[in-house]
Design goal:
By secondary structure, the protein is an alpha+beta fold. It has a domain at 34-114: Aminopeptidase. 44% of the residues lie in helices and 19% in strands. The chain has helices spanning 3-17, 21-32, 57-72, 83-91; strands at residues 40-42, 75-80, 95-101, 108-114. A four-stranded mixed sheet has the order 1-2-4-3, with helices on one face.
């Protein structure tokens, strides 16, 4: 993502994360050092309201970008923040290539890649 694209997303990120935005930005910066060097799509955030989980909404959200990755023969990369999220992404073809922590007391992040199909 270019700097200009990141700047354009800032108002949206601020409305989502409010006072936690600095912490979120530090986390993203730390995780970005392990991103693949090959061209790829980065899927930074996806969420479904807990009361609506398990209804196929997450799969419907992620499907268009995975289809695009397949059409363009590009990797998809993301960081899963819980074992449940990692399992969801595995069902969509992602595989963990590294596990990391943003700091020594922080929760684990599973760094995941999906190779294009076809």
């Amino acid at each position: 993502m270019t700097t200009l694209e990141q700047i354009r997303l800032l108002p949206h990120a601020l409305s989502l994360f409010r006072r936690d935005l600095p912490r979120v930005l530090r986390a993203l910066a730390g995780a970005s050092t392990k991103r693949p060097s090959e061209p790829h799509y980065y899927l930074p955030f996806m969420a479904v309201v807990p009361t609506r989980q398990g209804q196929g909404i997450g799969s419907a959200l992620i499907r268009p970008i995975l289809d695009r990755c397949d059409r363009e023969s590009l990797l998809a990369y993301l960081e899963a923040t819980t074992p449940r999220n990692a399992a969801f992404y595995e069902r969509h073809g992602f595989a963990t290539f590294s596990e990391t922590r943003l700091n020594e007391n922080g929760p684990p992040l599973w760094l995941m890649l999906r190779r294009p199909l076809g």
